[in-house]
């Protein structure tokens, strides 16, 4: 029987996010730069003696059949036509509904972890295709690299950026991705750009004006952050982030913003070019 496998499921930032059109099926064409972060949930996979899934989560409200971990498990079982015998424990650390992609990353790490633990030999394109059926943000976590993305966020070109520190402010409101994408006031006509890593600095997030109008707590967080740098929304929010030159400035600014926004949670996190999930898997293989 294989051994237990414990692996991370990291968060992402959208360093910029341009919406360039809407498709007939309602999904949006976008361009974004996904930045992998050194900040993760944790998944533990333990083989069992009976076929089927035992799923546990540190947050009991998430212990449901429609959790993205359970859905990823069922998808991979269908793909290999086996009911894999496994217990999966999900330890949540990432804020939910924050635009950090935690649920999508949990799904991706489940696909990657089961593939490795049971030697299923599914290749990267197959895992990305399976991931895409679970959500537009899943393929980038399966690829596991900071990447330029187009299409609905699933056409990926890996890009290496400086591994800078970021302040992330979670104003403790929950933003619904589906509601924002279908909002009549969302602008969907940003011109398509060629691949330009500089858009991490000069680009924008098309959700930002709308989200600031709809959520006063998020607007207040932006107001506070403007004393320290240029804040930007990640995904559809609720989190906003600012890029910092080094860890010491990130920690200083984090404390200062946390004091001024006691109802928010403020974090200092390092960007990575390679996902911590992939770092973990390749260290295990070495
Ligand atoms: C906002 C981002 O997080 C940026 O990375 C993603 O675009 C959202 O990705 P996600 O949460 O994995 O999205 P899904 O679970 O696939 O879809 C959630 C909702 O967002 C809408 N959606 C999502 C992605 C996209 N390119 N266009 C869309 O219109 C879908 O219609 C759906 O109603
Ligand atoms: N494993 C999971 N972890 C967190 N949420 C999950 C999970 N599986 C399903 N969900 C559901 O997905 C919702 C959104 O969670 P998530 O943290 O992924 O949002 P997000 O960071 O805004 O994602 P995105 O950036 O992809 O829009 C949760 O409120 C929850 O109902």
Describe the structure.
InterPro entries: GHMP_kinase_C_dom (IPR013750), GHMP_kinase_C_sf (IPR036554), GHMP_kinase_N_dom (IPR006204), IspE (IPR004424), Ribosomal_Su5_D2-typ_SF (IPR020568), Ribsml_uS5_D2-typ_fold_subgr (IPR014721). ATP binds at residues 95-105. It comes from Reinekea blandensis MED297. Pathway: Isoprenoid biosynthesis; isopentenyl diphosphate biosynthesis via DXP pathway; isopentenyl diphosphate from 1-deoxy-D-xylulose 5-phosphate: step 3/6. The chain is an alpha+beta fold and 286 residues long. The protein has 2 domains: 5-160, Ribosomal Protein S5, domain 2; 165-272, 2-Layer Sandwich (Alpha-Beta Plaits), CATH 3.30.70.890. It has helices at residues 68-80, 102-117, 124-134, 138-143, 177-181, 199-202, 208-214, 216-225, 247-260, 276-285, and strands at 5-22, 28-47, 52-57, 85-91, 147-150, 155-158, 165-170, 232-233, 240-244, 265-272. Strands 1, 2, 3, 4, 5, 6, 7, 8, 9 and 10 form a 10-stranded mixed β-sheet that branches. A hairpin with a 6-residue loop joins β8 and β9 (240-244). α1 runs parallel beside α2 and α7 crosses α8 (216-225). Adenosine-5'-triphosphate is lined by residues 62, 67-69, 90, 96-104, 106, 137, 177, 235-236.
């Amino acid at each position: 029987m294989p051994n237990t496998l414990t692996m991370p499921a990291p968060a992402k930032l959208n360093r910029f996010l341009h919406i360039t059109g809407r498709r007939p099926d309602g999904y949006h064409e976008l361009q974004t730069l996904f930045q992998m972060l050194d900040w993760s949930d944790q998944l533990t996979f333990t083989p069992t003696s009976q076929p089927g899934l035992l799923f546990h989560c540190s947050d009991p409200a998430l212990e449901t059949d429609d959790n993205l971990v359970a859905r990823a498990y069922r998808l991979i079982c269908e793909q290999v036509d086996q009911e894999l015998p496994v217990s999966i424990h999900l330890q949540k650390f990432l804020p939910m509904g924050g635009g950090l992609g935690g649920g999508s990353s949990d799904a991706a790490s489940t696909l990657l972890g089961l593939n490795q633990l049971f030697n299923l030999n599914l290749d990267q394109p197959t895992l990305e295709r399976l991931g895409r059926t679970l959500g537009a943000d899943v393929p980038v976590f399966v690829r596991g690299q900071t990447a330029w993305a187009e299409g609905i966020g699933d056409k990926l070109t890996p890009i290496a950026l400086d591994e800078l520190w970021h302040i992330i402010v979670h104003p403790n409101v929950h933003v619904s991705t589906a509601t924002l994408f279908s909002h009549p006031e969302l602008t969907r006509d940003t011109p398509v750009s060629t691949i330009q890593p500089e858009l991490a600095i000069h680009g924008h997030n098309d959700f930002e004006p709308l989200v600031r109008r709809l959520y006063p707590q998020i607007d207040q967080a932006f107001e506070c952050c403007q004393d320290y740098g240029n804040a930007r929304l990640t995904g559809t929010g609720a989190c906003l982030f600012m890029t910092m030159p080094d860890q010491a400035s990130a920690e200083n600014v984090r404390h200062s913003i946390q004091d001024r926004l006691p109802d928010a949670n403020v974090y200092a996190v390092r960007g990575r070019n390679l996902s911590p999930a992939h770092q973990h898997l390749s260290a295990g293989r070495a």
